[in-house]
Amino acid sequence: MKSDSIIYEGIFPSRGYNGLWMCCDLLIEKTAGAYLVTFSERTDNTGMSVTNLSEQLASEVVAKFGLEPCRCEFFEKYTYPDKADRLDRINYRFERVGGSWVATGAYWQYMAG
User: Fold this and answer.
1) Is the pTM here over 0.70, yes or no?
2) Across residues 40-69, what is the average pLDDT?
3) 99 and 57 in contact (C-beta within 8 Å)?
4) Distance (Å, whole) CA 40 – CA 51
């Protein structure tokens, strides 16, 4: 059963800047002060990686779900078959471009794993 705090949980497709489709798992959870947005690489993804498309994914998610970037915390989850999952926080700068929020300057901070 879906928790009331989960805004979206499922596959999120995106066309990479190279023109090829990719997909990742996306989880958006609402907390008291923020939206927690987690991208996870899928083993069946044949397109660009979450890491390489991170800024575009963040921009698309903010637009599609009507989120304010200042209320979002972004993460990338890495799943490995032979060791513990790893979670990194992704920090962006968001700028308004033509009325839309665009993420730039991504940098990762190790969280756990």
Assistant:
1) yes
2) 94
3) no
4) 9
Check: CB of residue 29 under 8 Å from CB of residue 61.
no
SS (HEC) of the chain: CCCCCEEEEEEEEEECCCCCEEEEEEEEEECCCCEEEEEEECCCCCCCCCCCCHHHHHHHHHHHHCCCHHHEEEEEEECCCCCCCEEEEEEEEEEEECCEEEEEEEEEEEEEC
Domain boundaries, the chain: 6-112
Cα-atom radius of gyration of the chain, to the nearest Å?
14
Query: What is the tens place of the pLDDT at every residue in 1-18?
Result: 456 799 999 999 999 888
**φ, ψ dihedrals at 74, nearest 5°:** -110, 145
pLDDT score recorded for residue 2: 53
Whether 51 and 76 have beta carbons less than 8 Å apart is answered as: yes
